[in-house]
Design brief:
The structure is a single chain. This protein is mainly α and 312 residues long. 56% of the residues lie in helices and 4% in strands. The strands form two sheets. A three-stranded antiparallel sheet has the order 1-3-2, with no helix packed on it. β2 (140-143) and β3 form a beta hairpin. The radius of gyration is 20 Å and the shape is globular. The two termini are 33 Å apart.
């Protein structure tokens, strides 16, 4: 069966990233942020949706949280940690007294702010960027492996998606959670089959809410999972990935059963997503995947798949 080259794909992606960085560095400082956002826009299928979520939060919470807009756009740099922390503490401090219809927006906004924070302490048993703040909502911080500091575990996404499932905020949280492999964890778990879990949760949501206004985005994410199932069943890249320190040894065997049906479902969901949202970022991405799948080629899709550390 014909396949595209995984190593060529890696080289292509690395080249695109390198060219993107060069483009970013080549523009005047005043235009650097715009260049960076343009690069993200080209490479993140959900970029427009993420911007929509931020704008919705700003509009909903602007009156009570005047500093929220800048904090949401801070980007997680070391220089912006203090203002993001202050905005997060202020936002969560007002949760208990917030109107019922505002509470899910507060929690979702807190999730996006907390995602930008980190604690650089290494070799410690715990580290909390919000240490000392007495808040009505507690956040969990997890060590990113290998020992790369402490980051927020996105439990608020799951909470909003469950407790406020019938609100626009609940749906937004669900999509972000699904895009994260339907996991709140900082580190992925090689023992957890996130590919199939995204399919299970995504299809369940689509079945329960056939008229969802964001159906196209969910269709796209489920299509990616089926695409990954198909591609992993075709995997021949274990040796190459081992050299990089990671392994997908055994992936082809684990995803062989049902692979043909997974390819067909990936095709169908990509086509449905593109039809529902023509001109969107994920429609453009779907349009690139569809002809490869139609020819039964390996798409090299690895969405949601957790590579295991190489055994030594």
């Amino acid at each position: 069966m014909p396949r595209s080259s995984f190593s060529s794909s890696l080289i292509c992606r690395a080249s695109l990233l390198f060219l993107g960085v060069l483009a970013f560095l080549a523009v005047p400082r005043a235009r650097a942020q715009d260049a960076w956002e343009d690069m993200l826009s080209r490479n993140d299928p959900l970029y427009d949706l993420r911007k929509e979520i931020k704008e919705s939060l700003k509009q909903k919470l602007a009156a009570s949280q005047p500093g929220l807009a800048g904090a949401l756009d801070a980007g997680g740099s070391a220089a912006k940690q203090a203002p993001v922390r202050d905005a997060l503490v202020k936002l969560l401090s007002g949760f208990a007294s917030a109107p019922a219809e505002t509470k899910p927006a507060v929690l979702l906004g807190a999730d996006l702010l907390a995602k930008q924070l980190y604690c650089a302490a290494k070799g410690t048993t715990s580290c909390n960027p919000l240490a000392g703040a007495k808040l009505p909502v507690q956040l969990t911080w997890e060590m990113k492996k290998p020992a790369d500091g402490w980051f927020y575990r996105r439990d608020l996404l799951l909470r909003v998606s469950k407790e406020y499932a019938d609100t626009p905020w609940g749906e937004m949280a669900f999509i972000l959670l699904l895009d994260n492999g339907y996991s709140t964890a900082v580190n992925c778990d090689p023992q957890r089959d996130a590919v199939r879990e995204v399919i299970r949760e995504g299809e369940s949501y689509l079945s329960a809410r056939p008229s969802s206004p964001r159906r196209a985005a969910i269709l796209f994410l489920v299509a990616q999972a089926y695409d990954a199932w198909w591609s992993l069943s075709q995997s021949e890249s274990a040796a190459l990935l081992d050299d990089a320190g990671w392994s997908e040894v055994g992936a082809a065997e684990r995803y062989q059963a049902g692979a043909a049906q997974a390819r067909e479902k990936a095709l169908r969901y990509y086509q449905e997503a593109a039809k529902l949202a023509p001109g969107s970022k994920f429609a453009d991405k779907a349009a690139r995947q569809i002809p490869i799948l139609q020819k039964s080629y390996d798409t090299n899709q690895r969405a949601y798949y957790c590579f295991a550390p190489r055994e030594k």
